[in-house]
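Lecture 7, part 2: worked example. A protein chain together with coenzyme A.
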Amino acid sequence: MKLEKEPEAPLQFLLAAESDFEEVVAMSEGIYGGLDYLPSRYHAWLREPQRTVVLAKRAGAVIGLQSVVIIDGGETALVEGLRVAPWERGKGVAGELQRFCAGLIKQQHPGVKVSRLTRDDPLGPKDFRKYRIVAKQVPTMPLNGVLW
Ligand SMILES: CC(C)(COP(=O)(O)OP(=O)(O)OC[C@H]1O[C@@H](n2cnc3c(N)ncnc32)[C@H](O)[C@@H]1OP(=O)(O)O)[C@@H](O)C(=O)NCCC(=O)NCCS
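Predicted complex, written out as structure tokens:
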């Protein structure tokens, strides 16, 4: 008997709400070795006027989050908090979430010229086509760069 894989429910992107907090914390378990900063900032982030917090949901459940705050007088979008639930990783969810947020920010803040984020994972050729390094922290880490 051939077992057919159930088709996955489509991704939905929504603005985060206070009521999503428990699910956000649950899907963030283990991030940054238990030192995740997001639980202590989540509610404050939702109240920041220049910040947008977007959730990815599948079948109504939170499976991803990214936040973007507008700085530098409206010219820079600072991307923070990106995460995808462990069981949804490796399927391109982060990329879809990033593209959704970029489109939203373009609409809401047409003055934005650059998008900036910090990464501490090793970068490959694809990443260098997408970003350019503007600062790099070398001494103790393999790579901890700020990207435009
Ligand atoms: C990093 C993480 C969000 C990647 O999620 P994922 O859905 O498995 O991502 P994928 O491997 O499918 O990669 C898809 C896209 O995300 C991008 N991406 C992967 N890791 C990234 C990172 N750390 N920062 C920014 N973008 C990242 C890739 O460049 C790719 O983009 P593309 O579609 O434009 O090519 C996920 O592993 C995670 O939640 N890790 C724990 C939290 C964390 O380390 N967050 C990053 C903070 S810098």
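The helical segments are 21-27, 38-47, 93-108, 125-130. The chain has a mean pLDDT of 91. Keep this in mind for problem set question 3.
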